[in-house]
Amino acid sequence: MVAFLALLAVVSHAATLSGSEPKRLYDIVSTDQRLSKAKLNEMHALLSGWDGTEMGVAPDGFKHPEYGDTALIQAAYEGHGEAVDALLLYGADPNAVDNEGETALMLASQRGYEKVAAALLASGADVTLADKKSGETALGRAKYAGHLTILKRLLASTAQSEKEAKASARLRTQGANKGGKSKENCADGDGDGTAPPGELPAGFEL
Predict the structure, then answer these.
(1) What are the phi and psi torsion angles at 135 (to 5°)?
(2) What residue ranges do the domains of the chain occupy?
(3) Which of 48, 78, 122, 136 has the smallest CB count inside 10 Å?
(4) Going by CATH, does the domain composed of 2-152 fall within 1.10.10.10?
(5) How many Å apart are CA 76 and CA 73, to the nearest integer?
(6) Can you tell me the distance from the alpha carbon of 82 to that of 114, in angstroms, rounded to the nearest whole number?
C-alpha cells in the first residue's frame, strides 16, 4: 500500500509539472520588483524537483502564448540576475527567441543589466543573433543605449568567437591537406615518399 501511494504521488507530481508549474516559473519572474528570497527558493524547488523524484520543471517548458518568450527571456528583461543564474544552471537555452526573434542577451544588453549579460555570455549566448524586426543584434542594442561596459563584453566575446572560428577552420584545412595526399606519392601512407622502416625503396636490391 505504501509503495502504491508513493507511485501515485510521483505520477501526480509529473502531471502537475506538465501543466501549471512551468508557467509558475514565468509568473515568478514577471515583475519589475526585486525577487524575494522566498520566490527564489520557490524557483529552485520547482527546477530541482523538491519532493525527491528528480522530476524538476523544464526551465523552457512554458512560452508566453502571445509574445513567445520563455522564463529566461522574461527574467533577463526584468534584470533578475539570480533568477537568470538559476534558470541557466538548470539548462535554460540562452539562445531561445521570442516571436520577434529577441533573445535574453539582446534585452539585457539594451536595458543595461551587466551581470545578466555576463551570465548569458558565460553560458554560450550567441552575440551574432539578430531580431526579426530591425535585424539588430545585442551589440547594436548596447551601443545604441550607451551601455559601454556591456558593449565591451560583447565585443570581447565577438573577438573570441572569431578567433576560435579561425582556429577551427585552420585545423580543418590542415586535416584536409593531410588526408588528401595521393597514395602514388606516399609509401605506406608516410607522406614523404620513403619506404617504411626496415624496408628498401622500390627498385633496390641487396
Answers:
(1) 70, 20
(2) 2-152
(3) 122
(4) no
(5) 5
(6) 13
CA pair distance 129, 125, nearest whole angstrom = 9
Within 10 A of 83 (CB to CB), how many other CB atoms are there? 24
- Which cell goes with 51? 519532493
Helices (H), the chain: 2-17, 20-29, 37-48, 71-78, 81-89, 104-111, 114-122, 138-145, 148-179
Nearest to 63 by CA among 10, 99, 111: 99
Q: What is the 3-state secondary structure (H, E, C) of 131-148?
A: CCCCCCEHHHHHHHHCCH
Q: Give the number of residues written for the chain.
A: 206
Longest dimension (CA), the chain: 90
DSSP code, position 108 = H
What's the pTM?
0.71
- Under 8 Å between Cβ of 94 and 69: no
